[in-house]
Structures are given as C-alpha cells and as structure tokens.
C-alpha cells in the first residue's frame, strides 16, 4: 500500500512540474568582437647608469660634502681624502723636474763645448760621443721626472672624489675618519643616473614564443624594433605616466625558472622612479573576431565555466566553456558555444537542464559584448 501511495505522490509532483509555466528570462545572442588583454609581469627598476663610487687612492676620509639621497651633478665634489701626503709627493716630484732641467742644461753646455773642441781637434770624437750620451740621459731623466710629477698630481687630485655622472646618491657606507682605499669591500656609495631607467622583467617560454610570433622580423632585434610600447604599473597600483620600449632580451633561458629576461627603457623626467623600485610591466595583446560571453552570464562549477543556452524548443542546455582569457566584463571563448547561439543572460540560479524558458531579448548585453574597447589584466 505504501508503495502505491509513493508512486501516486511522485506522479502528482511531475504533473505539477509540467504544469508550471516556463520561466521568463532575459536572453541574448552570442557575438564576435575585439578583445584587449593586458598581461602583467613582475619587474624591477634600475638606473640607466648605477655607478659604484670608490676611492682610487688610500687614505683617511676627511670630508663628506653631500648627504645620502642627494641629487648631484657630474663633476661635483662628493668626498675628500686627507691629501697631505699626496701634496708632499707632488711637491717632491715638481722639485725633481727642476733638478732634471738643471742637469739637462749642464749636459747641453758640455756637449756644445765638446763639439767646438772636436772641430779644433783638441779632444777626440769619443769624448763628444760621451757628452752626447750624457745629454740624452739628461733628456730622459727630465721626461721621467715630468711623468712622475704627472702621476703624483693625479693621485693628489684623486683625493677629491667627484661625481662621474649626474644622479642620486645611495647610502654612504663610511664615516669621517674611516680608512678607505680602492680594495675596500664596499663602495663609498652608489650613484644612480635615473633620467632614464631600465626595467627588467621575465617572460615564460610560452609567452616568449607568442612574443616572437606576434611581431614581424627575421631576427630577434627586428622583432624588438617592431614591438609595441609597454606600460608600467608601480607599487601603489597606479600606471606610470610614461610608456616604455623593450630594447633587449637575454640570450638564454634561466634553467631554474624556465623564463627569459627582458629589458624595457622608460624616460623618467620627474625622477618618480628610483633604482630598486618594483612594479609590473603591462603588455597589451589585441584579439580580433573572438567569441565573447559576459562573465555575469556564466557560472563556475568545480573550476569549470558553464553557460545556459537555448535549443530550438527553448529548452535550457548547460554548456561547458573553454575560456581563452578575459577582456573587460567578458570572457573570450575558444570552445563550447558559437556566435549566433542564444544564451541566458541572468536569473538562471534555479534553472535546470531541460527546463523550458520563455525568452526575453536583452539587446543591451549584445551591444556591450560587441564593444572592442574593453580591457583586462592577466598576471604572469
């Protein structure tokens, strides 16, 4: 008896379900459009010129003429080494020049006198040759003294350490009175020329192959030349105001990470970027004639994306989609649904496979999906 009652109850529920009016839901037509996807790559910033400031002579640090983080111009004095020893060495070298010049004058006089005596046959020609050799030696001694004085002068000038380029100073690693020299473990500081900056980022092998296939050219240099400008997103999430240009690619992949390093150059007229900054390189990728579905019209079930479409009888059909990427508020679809098919825009939360739907056309969705100015970001 219980069995017959249960069967009667189920039959009654099915009849009620069949008698339920179809749900009226907004529908739209799948269209093709243009997509713009922005891929992001973690990046680090370096100055075009990062110069280690090191002393070229040894001595005690006597003066620090600048502060950490200061902007300095090329040729501006930065540090002063105690120069007393080098000044005395330079003075000694200059005195040696005077001695060499006096010796040369004496040798010249002796040579001239010997030549006159040879003409009168008072002395032999050998003595004249000896005087000539002494004169030549005096000339060489003068040249040697002048070279020594020049070296002493250079060492004396090295006591004042100047900026080789314009830029910003880093941390100063020594204090007044420190004994410094060319072989020190640390530089005095690092000077960064940041009127332009190099931004380094890595790209996977797959993305690198896409990069190669995207741009014309028979060599990698030609492809770099034909590549588009790239953007930079700084740490606060805002876009940097200048566009950059890729100008170099590392010659080989990193075997540990499976990636290759790119370098992009950015102008930095307002010195917003500093060496050591981090950010993300943004590379735009345009896709023409791709199938677009609004993200809001899809559902995620166990890491898969689905959409409800309608068959010829207006019955709901749940379809699995293969998503190629995101562009604005749309998915770019490579498989699962075709342009021209009808899909349910919204209100499908209680919808089940095979249920009849009363379609209500929503043209606004089709118009939005057709727009080609949508943009999104994909992290790499």
Automatic annotation (TrEMBL):
Which intervals hold domain Multidrug resistance protein MdtA-like C-terminal permuted SH3? 293-350
List GO molecular-function terms, semicolon-separated: transmembrane transporter activity
Main localization is other
Q: What does the record list as coiled-coil region(s)?
A: none
List, alphabetically, the InterPro entries matched.
MdtA-like_b-barrel, MdtA-like_BSH, MdtA-like_C, MdtA-like_HH, RND_pump_MFP
Q: Where is the Multidrug resistance protein MdtA-like alpha-helical hairpin domain?
A: 89-157
User: Which SUPFAM superfamilies does this one have?
Assistant: HlyD-like secretion proteins
Which BP terms from GO are recorded? response to antibiotic
Q: Where in the cell is it found?
A: Cell envelope
- Where the record annotates domain Multidrug resistance protein MdtA-like barrel-sandwich hybrid, the positions are 51-188
GO CC, sorted alphabetically, is: cell envelope; plasma membrane
Ranges of residues in domain Multidrug resistance protein MdtA-like beta-barrel: 197-284
Region entry Disordered: which residue ranges?
359-380
> What superkingdom heads the lineage?
Bacteria
Q: Into which family does the record put it?
A: Belongs to the membrane fusion protein (MFP) (TC 8.A.1) family.
Task: Write the protein's name.
Answer: Membrane fusion protein, multidrug efflux system
Task: Cite the source lineage.
Answer: Bacteria, Pseudomonadati, Bacteroidota, Flavobacteriia, Flavobacteriales
């Amino acid at each position: 008896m219980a069995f017959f009652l249960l069967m009667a109850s189920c039959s009654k529920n099915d009849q009620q379900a069949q008698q339920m009016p179809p749900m009226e839901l907004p529908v739209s037509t799948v269209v093709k459009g243009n997509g713009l996807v922005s891929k992001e790559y973690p990046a680090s910033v370096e100055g075009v010129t990062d110069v280690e400031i090191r002393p070229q002579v040894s001595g005690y640090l006597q003066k620090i003429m600048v502060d950490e983080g200061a902007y300095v111009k090329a040729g501006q004095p930065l540090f002063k080494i105690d120069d007393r020893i080098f000044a005395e060495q330079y003075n000694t070298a200059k005195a040696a020049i005077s001695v060499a010049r006096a010796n040369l004058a004496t040798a010249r006089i002796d040579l001239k006198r010997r030549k006159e005596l040879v003409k009168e046959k008072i002395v032999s020609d050998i003595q004249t040759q000896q005087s000539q050799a002494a004169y030549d030696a005096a000339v060489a001694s003068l040249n040697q003294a002048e070279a020594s004085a020049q070296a002493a002068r250079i060492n004396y000038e090295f006591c004042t350490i100047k900026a080789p380029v314009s830029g910003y100073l880093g941390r100063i690693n020594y204090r007044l009175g420190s004994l410094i020299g060319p072989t020190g473990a640390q530089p005095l500081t690092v000077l960064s020329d940041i009127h332009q900056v190099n931004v380094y980022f890595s790209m996977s092998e797959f993305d690198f192959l896409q990069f190669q296939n995207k741009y014309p050219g028979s060599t990698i240099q030609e492809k770099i030349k034909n590549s588009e400008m790239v953007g930079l997103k700084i740490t606060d999430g805002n876009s940097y105001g200048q566009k950059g240009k890729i100008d170099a690619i590392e010659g080989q992949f990193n075997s540990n990470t499976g990636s290759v390093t790119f370098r992009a150059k950015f102008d930095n007229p307002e010195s917003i970027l500093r060496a050591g900054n981090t950010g993300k390189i943004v590379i735009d990728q345009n896709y023409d004639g791709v199938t677009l579905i609004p993200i809001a019209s899809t559902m995620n079930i166990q890491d898969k994306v689905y959409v409800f479409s309608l068959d010829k009888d207006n019955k709901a059909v749940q379809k699995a989609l293969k998503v190629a990427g995101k562009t604005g508020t749309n998915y770019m679809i490579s498989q699962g649904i075709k342009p021209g098919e009808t899909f349910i825009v919204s209100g499908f939360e209680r919808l089940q496979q095979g249920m009849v739907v009363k379609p209500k056309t929503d043209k606004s969705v089709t118009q939005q999906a057709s727009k080609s100015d949508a943009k999104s970001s994909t992290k790499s």
